[in-house]
User: Fold Radical SAM core domain-containing protein from Kitasatospora terrestris.
Amino acid sequence: MDESRTQLGDAVGTRFVERNLDLVGKLYQRSVFPAVLDVAHGGRLPSPLVVDLDPTTVCDLACPECISSQVLHHGQIGQDRIVRLAHELADSKVLAVILIGGGEPLMHRSAGRIIEVLHGAGIKIGLVTNGTQIHRYVDQLAEMLSWVRVSIDAGTPETYAAFRPARGKRSVFPQVIENMRLLAGRKRGRLGYSFLLMQRHDADGRVVESNYGEVYRAGVLAKEIGCDYFEVKAMLDEDHYTVNQRAEDVAAVEEQVARLRALEDEHFHVLHSSNWQAVRSHTDAVQPKDYHRCAIAELRTTVTPTGVFVCPYHRGNPKGRIGDIQESSFAELWAAADTSVIDPSTDCRFVCARHPSNQEIALLPTRLRSELCDDFDPFI
Assistant:
């Protein structure tokens, strides 16, 4: 097991809130900073530090607002190949892997084996899931994952059915909530309840369906389940731009969030995603960038069944495709990858969560010394 990986622990309580959301601060961890500094000086790494891994493009839900709809149901990484890939990542300098999608990662039949191989190598693992399959892999999820974030987007079965309908006729809301309770009772890592704010409008622009009124109810449910945090996220359009909201709608959400703050304690926290922070502060949906190289693309990459892409924002974008894991080993693919195919100044004008990290990395070559901190979270 790689010692540098074992040093990267999981944070809890207040430390989690203050530090694990600080993407810039994460760059200064002792096991992370040497690679960051190398990239700041124009170097290439033998592997990225973090991999977003989409095992499959298959999903068992049929969400109308799914931002990944264009990349769904285009197959999966084969069972033998993805297990080999897990071993290749285990043999690399990768510190963390996020199982995500695309599709629902736990729909892949090798999901449990992937987790076991990565965990055995000391790689930290996160999971973004719709929660329907948690019960199938609860042993691995409870014992081996740093965190699990479940996308719920509702506080009642009725609203869940409207915004996150299953492909069958049966509502899966009760199953998802029960799965989260099951995991909450056994987990070693963190469990999050993700709430994406969504509205539907008629031809005249009037709101006809919304989940905005269930923020408080969902947050109360999250705490009752045993979640460590409840996260509010803003809706994005298909090009990843934040969707501007009416002032009264923003105020209604903020009022509910304020009430949820009263429920916070050392075990439960209410979080704002970076895109909701942009909406609530009336930040322009267009985020100009004056640099032409994304340094983070050297530190993170996104592996999917249909190709490897520079980042999740460009998943499925032919311009952002840097290889195919079906055709080569991960080491070979990364050695040949050109992460400069995306120009942030022209290709990333949406609000990017890692824009501040890119700005920080650009300053490092001119600094005489940087103060480092002990390792706390490799998910940079």
The chain is about 35% helix and 15% strand.
